[in-house]
Target: Ubiquitin-like modifier-activating enzyme 5
Amino acid sequence: MAEPARLERLERRVRELEEELARERRGRAAARARIDTMSAEVTDSNPYSRLMALKRMGIVKDYEKIRTFTVAVVGVGGVGSVTAEMLTRCGIGKLLLFDYDKVELANMNRLFFQPHQAGLSKVQAAEHTLRDINPDVQFEVHNYNITTLDNFEHFMDRISNGALEEGKPVDLVLSCVDNFEARMAINTACNELGQIWMESGVSENAVSGHIQLIIPGESACFACAPPLVVAANIDEKTLKREGVCAASLPTTMGVVAGMLVQNVLKYLLNFGTVSYYLGYNAMQDFFPTMSMKPNPQCSDHNCRKQQENYKKKEAARPKEEVIEKEEEIVHEDNDWGIELVSEISEDELKAASGPVPELPEGISVAYTIPDKEENLITGETVAESEESLEELMAKMRNM
Amino acid sequence: MAEPARLERLERRVRELEEELARERRGRAAARARIDTMSAEVTDSNPYSRLMALKRMGIVKDYEKIRTFTVAVVGVGGVGSVTAEMLTRCGIGKLLLFDYDKVELANMNRLFFQPHQAGLSKVQAAEHTLRDINPDVQFEVHNYNITTLDNFEHFMDRISNGALEEGKPVDLVLSCVDNFEARMAINTACNELGQIWMESGVSENAVSGHIQLIIPGESACFACAPPLVVAANIDEKTLKREGVCAASLPTTMGVVAGMLVQNVLKYLLNFGTVSYYLGYNAMQDFFPTMSMKPNPQCSDHNCRKQQENYKKKEAARPKEEVIEKEEEIVHEDNDWGIELVSEISEDELKAASGPVPELPEGISVAYTIPDKEENLITGETVAESEESLEELMAKMRNM
Model:
């Protein structure tokens, strides 16, 4: 081929390829510019019109306030990723994401991640997708395991200082992790900092789950009582075998993420009734609710300290207000302060032996914490106890 | 620049661009090949390991059977898109999607669609994303409104013949539409065909929703009783104004889609208890369940025909089996056959006047259907009654 013709052909090819590449990239990039002020204007191009309509419908007084809040999501798996996506689409101000896993094809049976992201870190893949969905949200991602000494300290620092206004604490911490050790680390951090958080969990057989609101000093922490789960009505022993691959379903995890973020919205934007505990039994479509007072003998000394602070604060409040509050979440004639918000009558509470609280029908404990090892899960030893906690977990699995 | 150097530079540029383009396209395309047989192998690269684990956990006997089923999803909006994604990730055999809307930025407050898809038809955008997520699923999409005459006939034809094996009916139809007319069209089609379907809905104030299983002749159809909604505990009049932009939340829609697909999985794979009606009141975290017998005076003559067929079928069954079935879903001392599956005692049922059935606490009717116009919503007139149905809906909005 003559050189001028060859040059011309190559130049044309470069132009074609540049155009195709630009088109591909346009397709993947965020298709909208940032929006300075949330508007209720009803147009097809307004991503906030259906959220701002909550004001007109009389549900939320001040929806725009969502932009002032920062939420930390620990664990960006089946529940955490959907939780982060829901908050992003709702227009939350800032999200902090913590995870140390990589996306795998084995995660494709749950919502959010896509096969082409396999191999990427979960927090990076999530940040990329979420930024495209809503460029108005600020993201801060940490690709590490919060339970190791250095990381735990950094995690404490970020939830204390990582709000939209640097130096201020986040508004909520959400636990979307899949193991006991990480939950205990979050519990320890939040008890020390007096940080309000919500717990979430899905059973290994994929057919039950729960969410729980923990206000240090006011409601039971994760160390106050054995972790609660919704009874799955199947032989629990089959779930505890070592090395068994846990089952999971996008349905159960989607419902739990939805219940969790709904509770977050109700808590942050002050509408409806915020649930202290809401369970989901998918086999029977049963959703038990309850609330629990903290345990005065809690093994976490920071929880006990927060309980003292709460008592002092309550005592200092005007009388009526205190009574109203007490009636709302505390049940006096029950050592563990369990209150049945609905569904189950007091008579249906059944006694349980040992360190297991009385629980409404349909809720049971995931495992009981051996007394002699209780020091392992207090605040001071979270960092050093890494190996022992693993031992503890192995024991629990064999119970 | 000398011509040889220019040629070399251009050739290098073409190679670079081709590589970049290939990388971009690899990123967007399905990152996995098709999988012939579902395996329970526990590896990071097996997208079905966590689903097949349901067998080991004793929840589902034959999970692989999911691949033999075809489900039609009508309406690919806030609930329908997540419903289709969950079924795709669960490895359903074939999905039929029906919608005539385009993706808009105003949809970004719900899960699934992304800003770069704005302007595309919902069914095409959904098919593209879902194929990437799971190339093992077969898709058939229809970008039309099922309520017009021609489209309604085509819709009937596809649900009668569109299964994996062409010529066989789909296993389930899921209604994820947002209006009365489309629900009535699905109801009419399913009554005529004897097609089992599930209804779903979310209130205009975004804080309640429900799912409902309709087995023609066996449980109440959409025309048997006024459509049921979960009471929202707010002034319903504020919701019925013309031209008001409905509010929506990714949380409520995610929960409703999760409840719906969970019910689909339980129904198709034969585990747990399939719910006839499950409501969701997000303000109080209240989830009422119930079931309802068909109305012998239903305005849809095909519903009445299906009721006769069901009675004959039941009469022909061995005696014990019939009794068991009756006890399961029918409540004898109640005209409307409402059975309370949980939560509410019989005493709590309150009487209602007119064509409104007695309902458990927390459930109310969306609107009542005027008697004199009942012919408009029977099978024979669905196509011709388009304008009149709009008038009917306008009247209902003003009730």
Observations:
- The two ends of chain A are 78 Å apart (CA to CA).
- The first strand of chain A starts at residue 70 and ends at 74.
- Chain A has a mean pLDDT of 80.
- Residues 279 and 288 of chain A are 5 Å apart (CA to CA).
